[in-house]
Amino acid sequence: MLHSTGALSPEDILAEVRKFISGAVRPTHSTSTLDVTRTALSLLRHVPAARDAVLEYFCNVFFIAVTKYVRQLETNQNLAICEETIIAEIHTVLSSFINGNPEAWAPIISAWSLELLGKLSSEYAKRGNLPVNAGINDFLQQWMSCCATRTLIDITAQCLQCLMHSDTESCIKALLDTSVLHSPHFDWVVAHVGSCFPNTVITRVLSCGLKDFCAMKNEHNVKNPKLNSVVGILGHLAGSHFQDITAALLDLFKWSLQEDVNIDEDTKNQKLATVPFLLNLASLSQTLLKAITSDVLQTLKPDIIPQLALFASDWCRYFDNQPEALLDLTVHLILGCEQGGSQLINILLDTSLSTSNVGYHSVNAAQSVKSVCSEILELVLQEIDLLLRTHGPQSANIALLNSIKQEFVVILPLLLSQTPLRIQTAIRLLCFLGSQSPNILISAASYLLVKAVTTFHLAALIRLISNNIILFSSNKSETENILASHSYFTQIVEQSLRDINYRSIIGKQEPEQFFQNLTILLKWERSNKAVVLRSKMITQAIKFNLPQISALLTKTTDFDLANDIAKMLDLFSMPEKDNFIPNVELTLKLTRAVIQYFFLCIEKDDITKKQQGVKIVCHLLKDLTFYSPCARVLALREILGYSINNDPAKYFGAKEKFVPKFEETLLLHQNHKQVTSTMLAQKHSSVFHAGVIGHGPRRPPPQNNIDKEIIALNKILLIDVIKACCSNRESERYPVNLDALTMVSLLLVELVSPDVMYNGLPWPDEEFTKVTIERDLQIHRTFKDVPLLWTLLELTAWYRPALAYCSVLLRGIAATVMANWNIDEGVLLVSVMALGQLLPPPLASIRDVLPVLEPQQINTIMKECVWAYMRENVPSPALFTRSEGANIAWRDTDTSTPNSRFTETLRLLLLSNIHTLGPLYAALFLQ
Amino acid sequence: MAGNDIKQNLRKLDFPYCAREALCRIEILCGRPGKQVDLQLDLISEFVFGEIERRKKRNLTIAIQELQLIEVLSDFFQSPGGSAAVRNAVFLSLFPADSPRYKILGNLVSLVIATQNKAVLNATGIWMQQLGSTSSQSVSLARHVLNDYFVLTPKSIDKLKHLPVLAPHFTANLLTAIGEVYEDKDPPTELLRLIGEWIDENPSLLLTPLIDNPALPTGGIPMTPITPIAGLFRWCILSPVRSIDIEDTDYSEERKKLYSKIQHLLMDSVLRLKNNGNNKHAISAQHFAATTRTLTATLQSQTNINSILRDLSMERLAQAVSAAMSANCIYGNKQELLALLQPLSYLHFLIEWTLQTYASKAA
Q1: Quick one: average pLDDT of B263-280?
Q2: Domain definitions of chain B by residue range
Q3: What's the rounded Cα separation, in Å, for the pair A385 and A331?
Q4: Phi, psi torsion values for A563, nearest 5 degrees
Q5: Pairing state of beta strands B330-331 and B283-284?
Q6: Where are the beta strands (DSSP E) in chain B?
Q7: Residue A696: helix, strand or coil by DSSP?
Q8: Preferred mutation among B15, B62, B67 to probe A, highest tally of A CBs within 10 A
């Protein structure tokens, strides 16, 4: 055999040639194929003249191999194909040629392999097991698993790789020319090769397709096979080169918009055809639509749209001169967008609402663009509606809707727009989305509820809700039942509250707005004008969410917010109290919340707001305490506790709470302060009675610098609130419930003197004050610190016999007055007791006498008259009689006239001061 | 035998036998007086090249059949018997000046070079001379051969080595054509090397077209042979000013040497013509004039050429012209040539000298 390299003699060459010819011309003996191929390869190496013949012969070999492969596919056999080894050999030799001298061999071999591939693809396109409508990927798979075609593709790719650097254009041209010749069966080759050289192939395929599209514009009814090829190829490439495709499409689009005067007619037509071409591409493949929308959309700015308007009439020519067809295609493409849906909607809205005519060539053009945009928008919305209704909301798969769903945050601000069209569009879109997933509706509605500033927007909210009420009632599946169970406005409110509670970034404005809106809605509902609201859904919603609302009111320190909440609650609880009795827990929560609000009001400087707020508080508390005794207990305790002991006390004239602060210091530093003398704990060296060493003398608590008038007002308001808590609804005449006031006085005792011992009503022997002196002083100090207590005592004194329960407090103060002859306190004490009818007439006048007395006289009178009388006459509620239906008890003055033992001292003291107290003496003792 | 009978008989035969048979018939026809040229052409078209539509059905494997045909042709011309003149005539009618059969001719020549088929090579040589060895047909044939042997299968260059010995007339014509192939670009080094060897080993090669008389049938008029000398001179003259881009030094060094060698060999050949009476048509003045024009234009357009290289170019031009003038083997418009040299004479003394020496003689 002469297959080895090395020079052949001329005779050998001739012999080889003859052998090859005889083998190639009659390819009957398949056994000799290998032999002939080897001869052919040797000829290829040594006899350039035989090159074409040899390559042609290889064609036969490949054809045979492919035939066998296809037949095996069809018969499901799996035998070895003997040509495969030959093909492998051919591959090796050809590769070596290409690598050895690419410039010379690559064009020849690539032309040959492309042509052969084309022929094979067309020839066997209908064979094999592929379905009739097989796509490019099926072809690719079938042919890549065939040894022969795979080898050819490899060779082609290798050739192109070599040529790419020097001669890109002609390579791609050859590729596409073959593709045109054998389209569509050749597409898989282009696709495969394309993935080796994505940039070039994509751009070229596009421009080729565009040219063809441009030329085909007249016969558009026929499906354009070339367009399908382009789509197939790009679709295949999209898998791995999506970015390149996107960029190429964008470039093409931008190119079509470039204005250039010096272009020939062809280019101009191509530029005009670009947009219809892109639209057609997109309509044929979802992938390409995605590619186009991802980037081209970004460039679709307001300044470009007028430019497009200029071409619109030319585009129609590509749609059989039917603008409707173009519109229809556009609408369907928009529906198919998987991303950028909200952006699309926005573009349409912006354009149709734009008021400027800048950039348009005429006013008419601008007008028609706007009307077309709104038409498209309307068509899109209608189409979605139709699809949802025909397929049912769950099964209808609309890409645009899915895209909007993902970016529905972008749609939300439309709801707050000023233009009705935007709001309407947004609402319609949200309704569509809502039919698929109700959650979206809820968050959208809650968004609107929180953000709406005008009633206009609230009306939009109502519309959004009412649209869906109908939708829900029409088809109740499992998911909607959740909503049906408690009206879904409830969920909206719940969601909004959750947002307010947990989203820390949320502005101060929004919670207030939310409650204001709720109030407005509630008013609307109460007005009974809106049919939609007759179901009382807003009341229901508030009712359901009261726990959250009250928690919010309890938590908040923001007066405005609290005010809005309170107003809302006020309105809520106004008319139909009969229907709604909250459970205990909720009542208590509400009570606590209202009381918090009360103290916020008290803190507020603005008198009008304060009074309004307190009015609301009174109203609310009245309601609450009337129905629930627990609420009353809690309310009173809270109010008294806070206003006496806690921070708010200062607003009622109490001294500021003062906690001396001691900083933690290092032991070392403390030791440095020591001198050499030893220190004993609690000795003079360590503790100085006026203060602490190192910190100077104890500072007195800061003065209460709140305006006296304000304090007075606050006290009045507090009394109002307490009265409201103790309200009595049964009779209009006596608005205050005595039992409740008894509770107040008991509470006062508990708060001021929480002792167990000697806390009863009876006054002991005067000597006994020595035992209780410490407690008495304590009570005295509390009254001094918290002057409000006097006011409260007065309140209880008003509503007899409640004051009787405060006996211990009165006793304590009386004891201290006896000890320190304090006139002011004595007067206060006696007048309170007189008011409460604990001291009957002549004794009641002691308050007028005290200021003029000497200290020892004060002591005497307190001892002899007040204390002694009280010791004899235990201040018990039994002393008072209460007439039927009356609310206040009276002490019978006739039966309770004090014994002269108690009045004699008073008379004598009056006598001794007769120069000033003459008239009083006359009034008391001479009648 | 009438033309139709011949055709009918031939039609009974299959390819490639019909081609072979047709060739024999044509040979017979050619040898006769009253050649029946039309019949010849019909036979060639129908039976040899199968260009008639009726025979197209066999065209499924074109290239293989071409190869078959080439094999038949080479076999036919090599077969014993028959006169060279008649065969040459057949060859000429097979590949007339304006036919589309150059590809087959190219492959035929390429194959016979490999198989050293002297008969076909000679016939091709005559074909080239008759069409003019600088004609486009010849040049494209030369290009085909060069492409096959230098570009596609560089390993087979050896096959060309013995060509001058085997078919000097063909080789000389081929060389003339090759000179035109690289009219405005530098030839590859391998080619330079090969040509250097060729001329070195066969000093008379360059003059072969002048000496050999082609074997033509009676009545055939041989065309004026064109020697490769002028074409090769052009290479040598223009190459220094062209190689501006600095290449690999070893490589360019070798090329410089090769050019010098060829220049030297050319000068030798020209000078050898000096005492030969039959030398008037060795070199065309037009050919030189064209070279001179190109050189002048190049020197004008590219001012940054290394002065050494520029001088080398002009020196070679002066040498070539003066040698040709002294050997008196130049024909055509010598005045024009000298007039073209005039502007260059200021740049190089040798040109000036040449002008001074030969201006009077040319007149």
Answers
A1: 77
A2: 1-78, 83-224, 228-363
A3: 13
A4: -60, -45
A5: parallel
A6: 283-284, 330-331
A7: strand
A8: B67
Contact B151 A104 (CB under 8 A): yes
Chain B contact present for A14, CB below 8 A: yes
Our CA dihedral for A438, A441, A442, A448, rounded to 10 degrees, sits at 180
Nearest CA in chain B to A42: B153
Provide the edge-to-edge strand list for the sheet that holds A687-688: A687-688, A691-692, A696-697
Query: How far is CA A169 from each of CA A165, A166, A204, A907, rounded to the nearest angstrom?
Result: 10, 9, 9, 132
DSSP conformational letter for A683: S
What tens digit of pLDDT does each residue of B121-174 get?
A: 888 888 888 888 788 888 888 888 888 888 787 777 777 888 888 888 888 888
Q: CA angle at residue B28 from B25 to B33, to 5 degrees?
A: 135
The per-residue DSSP string of A768-810 comes to GGGTSHHHHHHHHHHHHH-THHHHHHHHHHHSTTGGGGGHHHH
CA torsion A426-A427-A433-A438 (nearest 10°) is 140
Give the Cα separation of B46 and B40 in Å (integer): 10
Task: Please work out, in degrees rounded to the nearest 5, the angle formed at the alpha carbon of residue B68 by the alpha carbons of B66 and B72.
Answer: 115
Please say whether the beta carbons of B289 and B333 come within 8 A.
yes
According to DSSP, the β-strands at A696-697 and B330-331 are unpaired
pLDDT digits (tens, 9 = 90+) for B74-127: 888 888 777 778 888 888 888 887 777 888 888 888 888 888 888 888 888 888
- Mean of pLDDT over chain A: 78
Specify the pLDDT at position B53: 59
Q: Which residue among B64, B111, B151 sits closest to A47, beta carbon to beta carbon?
A: B111
Distance CA A561, CA A567 (A): 10
Could you say which DSSP state residue B47 is in? I
Q: Minimal CA–CA distance to A548: which of A604, A605, A499, A615?
A: A499
Q: Cβ contacts of residue A111 below 8 Å, gap of 6+?
A: A174
A420, A419, A384, A421: which is closest to A405 by C-alpha? A384
Residue A217 phi, psi (nearest 5) = -60, -25
Is some CB atom of chain B closer than 8 A to the CB atom of A47?
A: yes
Residue of chain B nearest A59, judged by CA positions: B61
A812, A772 Cβ separation under 8 angstroms: yes
**Confidence band for A442, pLDDT divided at 50, 70 and 90:** confident
Q: Is the pLDDT of residue B274 over 70?
A: yes
Under 8 Å between Cβ of A90 and A61: yes
- Rounded Cα gap, residues A507 and A350, in angstroms: 28
* Tokens matching residue A50: 């035989």
Q: With an 8 Å Cβ cutoff, are B114 and A10 in contact?
A: yes
- Across the interface, whether the CB atoms of B67 and A105 are under 8 A apart is answered no
3-state secondary structure of B21: helix
Q: What angle do CA B211, B216, B221 make, to 5 degrees?
A: 80
Of A18-32, A134-148, A345-359, minimum mean pLDDT range: A18-32
Rounded to whole angstroms, the Cα distance separating A114 from A157 reads 10
The pLDDT of residue A191 is 77
Quickly list H helices, A437-536. Answer: 438-451, 455-474, 478-485, 488-502, 509-527
In whole angstroms, what is the distance from residue B181 CA to residue B228 CA?
Answer: 12
Cβ-Cβ contacts under 8 Å, B66 against chain A: 52-53
Nearest by Cα to A440 from A462, A482, A460, A412: A412
Residue bearing the bigger pLDDT, A186 or B214? A186
Nearest-angstrom CA–CA distance, A560 and A601: 10
A14: which 2 tokens?
């001739």
- CB-CB neighbors (< 8 A) of A40 in chain B: none
